[in-house]
Amino acid sequence: MADRHVGARIRERRLMLGLSQQQLASMIGVTYQQAHKYERGLNRISAGRLFEIALVLAVPVSWFFEGLNEEGAAQPLGVRQRMCLELARNFALIDNERHQEALSQMARALAAQSQGRPLD
């Protein structure tokens, strides 16, 4: 169960960064097939390899275990979490910095409005 959770978190972060499985595989020095097996939780990831993946994906190793409960069961992704992942992935794909900044400002304004506070 933990292997599948860690694999799902790898996939989540990879998508958040806008990377393909092939790109991730190349960055960590494994085949596409091996990266696919890691993400599906079919192959167990060694501590050294997980550390390397964490470096490539710019997260601490502990990030891969967040959301894993004591019994080793993963908490299912909610609709809101899926939307956040999709938003982050699409944001990363925007290559125009002005467009990224405009989207960021819009999100700040909408969040402030939702919380009933004035814009800073």
From TrEMBL:
GO terms for molecular function: DNA binding. Residues 10-64 form the HTH cro/C1-type domain. It comes from the Bacteria. Transmembrane segments: none annotated. It holds the Pfam family HTH_3. This is Transcriptional regulator. It comes from Teichococcus rhizosphaerae.
